[in-house]
Amino acid sequence: MANFETYQEYQRIEDIEEDSPHGEEDLLVHVPEGLRDSWHHIKNLDNFFTRIYQFHQKNGFACMMLSEFFELFQLLFVVTFTTFLFNCVEYDILFANRAVNPTGPGQNPLDRNKVSLPDAILPSQQCTERIQENRWIIFLLIMAAIFWVYRMIKVFCNILRYWEIRQFYIKALKIRMDELCNFTWQEVQDRLISLQREQQMCIHKKELTELDIYHRILRFKNYMVAMVNKSLLPVQLQLPLLGNLVFLTQGLKYNFELILFWGPGSLFQNKWNLHPKYKRAGNRLELAQQLSRVILLMGVANLLLCPFILVWQVLYAFFSYTEVIRREPGSLGARRWSLYGRLYLRHFNELDHELHGRLGRGYKPTSKYMNSFTSPLLTVLAKNVAFFSGSVLAVLIALTVYDEDVLTVQHILTAITVLGVVITITRSFIPDEHMVWCPEQLLQCVLAHIHYMPDHWRNNANKSETRDEVAQLFQYKAVFILEELLSPIVTPFILIFLLRNKSLEIIDFFRNFTVEVVGVGDICSFAQMDIRRHGNPLWMSEGQTEASVYQQAENGKTELSLMHFTIKNPRWQPPQESSVFISHLKEKVHQDAQGGPPTQLLLSEAPLCSSLLSNESGNAPDNLLASVLAHPVLTASGLPGRDRCFVPPSTAASAAASVLSSLSISHSQLPNASRSHSHVLLPSIHPDSTMYRSDRTGIDSMSASDSRIKSTTMLSEFASAEMSLHAIYMHEVHQQSSLPHQRTSGQWQNPMPMRDLISNTGLQTHSGHTAVNLSSMPTPLRGWMEEEEEDAEEEEVLNRGSTPKQDSRSSC
């Protein structure tokens, strides 16, 4: 993060839609009699809206309370069962190291009776005496009992709170519990906004917007996303021998939030207001020293609690993962999005379910990209270890089949189990020799879903450095478990030795990047998605932003977050600066679409492109994305198109622009009776489902029919696909702005690995369109058609390429 040389004062801004004029707090508002006492003038709207959101996402009152009770009994079970295993089991008898009954005078001591499970369990009196004699066990049980009582009180408080939320859904939102699963969050949110007009849940504003609700639910999470984006949190560690590592666990994140947001000595005086002393620059050094002392005390507290937390982490991991590892040893080699990756890839104002859905769609392409890297040395070792282990296991199995008494030999079952696990693990490191990967195309497919990619990844997808950085976002499950186990040990040292050194930067960050919005409170200024204040000129906001280097969000997060929020909330009215940026982007898309491939051509190539990218989903949005991503590869090959016509080379940006432009044409023609060719792309999309809409009237979200559910699901899928297209397009345009010397005729020229057609084709622009000189181009493949037919086709393509097409595009 850049050093702050100029310090601006904390700012208070009015609501962007001017719904909160001065003096509105004194207005008298009529409230229906039945709802006045319960939900008028809710004091803590942050908690209220958060509970409404969690109630919806966790499927209602019954599921939530059942989960709460099971978590409570799970804690009780782990403590009691562990105590029982350590104090109430006679392991000498269980392992047959001692006879169950004393031997008689005429018995051989080696003759032992068959051991049953009750024989190895001590009587309750003896078990109690063992527990009472161990003071450490008594101390740990007391600590666990105190924590369990605290959790039980919290569960009963949650029951009362969520019962109120249940009543709010039924009485205020008119949503029955048996219908809750049929409503999307956007529909619940629309009802909240409508309810605000009837009764003033927030008395400081007449109307709530979608952004107001997001700000209250994600107030602290937006701060965390911004601090990760500006590299303020010390989560990247430089260790000897291990190099650059990212370490962020649930425990460390919990400590960050405890110190900064809601713990004793935090920067916020309540859920929605930063403490006034942190809003002034005069005493920043004193406040930094005070924050440093709070961090030190928190680090020492973590150090003292380290043994207890570590024991709990080990026990919980043992009970949670042992059975899974025994049943599926390869599960440790599976990958998951790291906690750091979830913060790094998260948009401003992106709810949990939106993030999980987006990263879930990106899971398969990211796994394929990571699997495209293999270590030859590790492969050789894995093959040989698998051979030797398999040989020994085959002999043991053959002996067991021949005589089952072999199983009674000591440690035979253990050896068979261990060898099977070793074989399963080693085979996971042996690549499929029949698979062929294209890292660049796979990484582009990953970008389409995760939306963020550092500039130095481009054209370096096959390098191990890029793979290692992706692994920081997409880690092995075994690495996740190991980090969580080490978290109680590492967290105190990160707090004491790293976070304390950031105290002054943290104080400056919260003062410089906090604004007060009327009716919402103090929020992170980045969450406003203000292009003028936090835009980056290299991300299509040139001439629209006044931000200095350290005020700009990194990696285009402001611009991409604005596009994501606009697409996910089509009824939201953006402020003036944001509207100008969206209009500029729309004009740029239409301009670049003139040189892009026709949409119908992309649709016709969808099956081939899906196969090229190993896309197995088969749904329309994913197939469309595959066409956009793989089309440049097909055109770069120099092969004729599906109808045996030459297709000019294009880029992913021009292909994405062509599809986005067709969406605009489709929705502008939607009220007409006739349907254009672009309607084939999105037959069921409503104008409110895309950024390129001609009006803001929409389907009544209060209805609850089966057709509405299907339509809503389809709209959500295509909205995600539209955002993916915008991410691809904006990254391509960003590359053009960053590397202007690589632009030719206004288009990004990608390297063409199969055949260099740039030197063999004459690409000339005339009136904004591309004309193809086919007379100097060698025919890629002969024998597909007669020479006369081929000349006619070439002449037709030439005529089409020089004739402007405004309403629709033919496919060559």
From TrEMBL:
Keywords: Autophagy, Lipid transport, Membrane, Transmembrane, Transmembrane helix, Transport. It is a multi-pass membrane protein. GO terms for cellular component: autophagosome; phagophore assembly site membrane. Its main location: membrane. GO terms for biological process: autophagy of mitochondrion; lipid transport; piecemeal microautophagy of the nucleus; protein localization to phagophore assembly site; reticulophagy. InterPro entries: Autophagy-rel_prot_9 (IPR007241). Residues 784-812 are annotated as: Disordered. The keyword rRNA-binding does not apply. Pfam families: ATG9 (PF04109). The chain crosses the membrane at residues 61-86, 136-153, 294-319, 377-399, 411-430. The keyword Glycoprotein does not apply. It is found in: Preautophagosomal structure membrane. Residues 786-796 have a biased composition (Acidic residues). Residues 800-812 have a biased composition (Polar residues). Belongs to the ATG9 family. Phospholipid scramblase involved in autophagy. Cycles between the preautophagosomal structure/phagophore assembly site (PAS) and the cytoplasmic vesicle pool and supplies membrane for the growing autophagosome. Lipid scramblase activity plays a key role in preautophagosomal structure/phagophore assembly by distributing the phospholipids that arrive through ATG2 from the cytoplasmic to the luminal leaflet of the bilayer, thereby driving autophagosomal membrane expansion. This is Autophagy-related protein 9.
